[in-house]
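Final report, Chapter 2: Outcomes

The project's central promise was a pipeline that accepts a single protein chain and returns its three-dimensional structure in a standardized token representation, suitable for archiving and comparison. That pipeline is now operational. To close this chapter, we reproduce one record exactly as it appears in the project archive, with the input sequence first and the structure output second.
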Amino acid sequence: MSAGEVGAERRALGISLWVSVGSAAGAIMLGVLSGTRIIVFDGAYMGIGLILTAISLKASSASAGGPTRRFPFGRDAFTPLVVLIQGLAVAGTLLVAAGDAVVIIRDGGSPVSAAIIAVYGVITAAIGFALVWWMGRAAPDSDLVVAEIAQWRAGAILSVMMVLGAVVALVLQGLGLDDVALYVDPVLVLVACLILAYIPVGLIRTGLNELLEGAPSKELDAAITDAVQAVRQFGLQKPLIRSGKVGRKLYVEVDFVVAGTDWNVGEEDAVRRAVVKALEPLGLDVWAYVALTAAPDLFE
């Protein structure tokens, strides 16, 4: 990752951090004072996001530090580790909120101020979607920022649900169905948890895949294959390609079977340089290993 990309990543995470501080504090205070669980839940969600953003900033610094004597291959694994932690934290938050909502429904619901929920929902939705848009433009290639965007998008969707729920509560109260309106708050929390469930699932899957050195996404794998095809001008056969992505680091192994007597070290180096150059446009920190061998069994 270039110095400019690192700077953009840290700037995006830093702004997200400070917005989270103000939003979480305000939400929890308003939720407690008004006795509205959906707002307390939203504040707790942002509070957890605040902690995770701080961790992301640390991970960004560690990953950008490059290889060291203790970590000769760098510390890029911090990135998928933080993504995995974010996914688990969001999942935990949703489970706790859903459990609390079920208890409230069992106990007969709870009164809410529809007007407070509506105003709060409109303001926080605007903040969330604005941050999603800005961070997506500021650091689109950062896995940490992408995970941060997922959190803010989830929060913004939750805020939209609040506004819809407030409208439903106002309609019910207008129709004289105050007893039914008591269930709007906890039901709203349950619906929001179901809608947001895809976010932690995606984060956990992505983090685990990279930590376990799984294959990259289909789009990236196709791009790698297309790039390697660029060296076919050397008259080589179809190679065996293995790749894996960890944070911004992309490992690519390309093995060609050749007639050993037809190649020298200089020609092999030319193939290696061609493969590395072809992979550069991917915009990742590419660690490429290119081998030409007359013994196919060495690939196994």
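Archive annotation: The chain has two domains: 3-211, 218-299.
This record, like all others produced under the grant, will remain available to the consortium after the project formally closes.
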